[in-house]
């Protein structure tokens, strides 16, 4: 696969050099917005378009299930830094229907971990549901993430936080939290 990636890259770079592809955009989000969403492949090159954004308009943060875990502050740190240092004024937490993190069980993940060489003792001593970020309900997960961001002591209070739920097939958005 790496060779195919590098081959595609050579073609891409050639298109940029010939002016056929835009390459230079500002590193700051032109629309002063940030999207926090899931890593689901159905959202790639789809979510931003469904929201009316193009390259350079928004910052995007992704993780499995767009989950903000209690013991892991990296998502909130990233959003707060974007607000403080990069001019972000609006945050969109966008979950989606049919999320894989709702379909997983702690038992399945533990089994996969051991099969892939993770020390069984580590697996046994880990709350897999919490560690992996397994969710029970996509809407509730969006609400939870919005509240955690809003209530973070690091988050500037003038940043607007919205919660949305997307259909990964049609792109339709439903407002969960304003």
Question: Care to describe what's here?
Answer:
With 178 residues, the protein is an alpha/beta fold. It has a domain at 25-99 and 135-177: Beta-carbonic Anhydrase, Chain A (3-Layer(aba) Sandwich). It has helices at 2-17, 47-50, 74-86, 100-103, 106-115, 120-124, 128-132, 138-150; strands at 33-38, 58-63, 90-96, 160-166, 173-177. The N and C termini lie far apart (42 Å).
What keyword list fits this structure?
5-stranded mixed beta sheet; Beta-carbonic Anhydrase, Chain A; alpha/beta; EC 4.2.1.1; 178 residues; single chain; 5 strands
Quick rundown:
With 178 residues, the protein is α/β, with parallel strands linked by helices. Helix content is 39%, strand content 17%.
